[in-house]
């Protein structure tokens, strides 16, 4: 179901741990699967969606929405 292109690796990890698909999460959020996938790539979640995901996965914001550091720091120079 979507590979490593998502910005939020921990959301994918928690989904896998619980064995729920993008479609199932999208249904719970009341959005389409493609919209959910896009939100995972853009980070464009609404506040209510963020709260739902934190509750559902029982994770805090900093963990669940940590940006994949390999993508975030791709273009920085030391």
Helix and strand succession?
HHHHHH
Using only CA atoms, what is the Rg? 13 Å
Oligomer status: single chain
Poorly predicted runs: 72-78
* Mean pLDDT across all amino acids: 86
Shape: globular
N/C terminus separation: 35 Å
Number of strands: 0
Helix percent reads 55-70%
* Percentage of residues in DSSP E strands: under 5%
Number of helices: 6
Largest sheet: none
Question: Structural class, judged by helices and strands?
Answer: mainly alpha
Write a short abstract of this structure.
The chain has 78 residues and is an all-alpha fold.
Give a written overview of the molecule.
The protein is an all-alpha fold. The protein is built from 6 helices and no strands. 10% of the residues are buried. The C terminus is likely disordered.
Features:
78 residues, mainly alpha, disordered C terminus
SSE blueprint:
Layout: H1 9-18, H2 22-29, H3 33-42, H4 47-57, H5 61-64, H6 69-72
Helix pairs in contact: 2-3
């Amino acid at each position: 179901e979507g590979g490593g292109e998502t910005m939020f690796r921990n959301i994918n990890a928690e989904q896998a741990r619980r064995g729920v698909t993008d479609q199932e999460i999208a249904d719970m959020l009341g959005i389409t699967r493609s919209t959910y996938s896009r939100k995972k790539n853009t980070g464009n979640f609404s506040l209510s969606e963020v709260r739902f995901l934190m509750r559902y996965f029982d994770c805090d914001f900093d963990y669940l929405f940590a940006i994949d550091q390999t993508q975030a720091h791709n273009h920085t120079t030391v």
